[in-house]
Amino acid sequence: MLDFDKRVEALLEWIKYTEDDRKPSTHSFISPKITVKNVEDSGRGIYAATASGISPHELIMNIPHAFLLNFTTVLNHIAKFNKMELDRHVYVPYDVKEDEFTEIYKQLTKPELLRLSSFQLLGMYLTFERKRPHSYWKPFIDMLPEMGEFELMPIRYSQDLKRLLPDTTRQMNDKLEKRFENDYDMVVKLLSSKTTAETVSKLLPKEEFLLSWLCINSRCLYMDLPTSHESSDNFTMAPYIDFINHSCDDHCTLKIDGRGFQITTTNSYASDEQLFLSYGPHSNDFLLTEYGFTVPENKWNDLDISRYILPLLKPATVVDFLKDADYYDTYTLNRDGLSFRTEVALATLQESNPAESRRLRALINGNIDSTVYKRHSQIVLAEILKKVIHEAENHQYLEFANDADPVKQAQMRAIGSLYKDRLLLARRVLEQKLDK
């Protein structure tokens, strides 16, 4: 594969043109004030390239729809081989070359494709296109990560390391793995109706589909699509834009219109300063599970203490009340204190007959605050936080783990960082909130 700078150059050249006769695009725009750098330890990112820096509210990118990889564009590309009739059209090059993968495209019908989710369709398509030497998407695909760049995601951990994850992270990862397995099975089922099991295994190896799936999961951006089945299908992959890394604070804004996907700065940037997007208010548990990184002192970290509260919810009348009121399970706290769900659960523990309690109903309805329940709630919460701290302290060694395998060492240290987050947050709430 070409070196990094050559691949970036090829990507820029590709985005610059849209027509078969190589006419420049009227919508493509990447500001000369930005550049891509691949920095050791932090990876690729977008940086201010000029001595004068970048001002707030500057348009720095517009990527036209022809270069966005999503359900709609994939349908249009596949339609070039099987003549599907589509309601919405985007630019697709006409110099398409046929091969063993396009033979599969020819057999896929519109109803079959529309039954797939965006993850399933794009996962299959990206896996196929990665192996097609003349793919229209080759400049974009050549810039996507290799599997080694996802090694910090728990989905790539050994079973022994997965067992060391904090319970909430492990639950997140279990859901992620189930989503992947379901998506792979659905695509294999479709392809198996078109060709032999041996051919499916050759064209769509599970590990290759996983790489495509992780690229999609870690690089998709929200975008309304007419073909989406549900909100989770409303996403697109956007070349060059996907170089922008995450910050807990908003640094740039996104906008989608008829011209394409646009990025505008919110802040000013000095020369050689990295630009950021916010992927959302996500904790480090979520960021590690979905993207494979964590943020030091992440302000969005929280603690799910459901496993400690649920066993306390006795007798059955307490559980029934919380379920009927839709306040059962998912009890969290963050650096600002308890979630309202958690306050309600701790308050309910103090009522002998919750269903008949006027003050509990007043709390749920917002007519009173939780002050009346505070003293006893703090006693229960203090005991819970001490258990969280004890568990985190028992796993502190992971943060400084050493192993002959550098990948395993990095994975162990990533797990250790999650326990450190839990330790710091529990101590903060215990010391700052319960003392008041």
Automatic annotation (TrEMBL):
Matching InterPro entries: SET_dom, SET_dom_sf, SET_MeTrfase, SETD3_SETD6_MTase, SETD4_SET
Residues annotated as domain SET: 32-280
PROSITE patterns: SET
Keywords: Methyltransferase, S-adenosyl-L-methionine, Transferase
Superkingdom as given in the UniProt entry: Eukaryota
Signal peptide: none
Protein's UniProt name: SET domain-containing protein
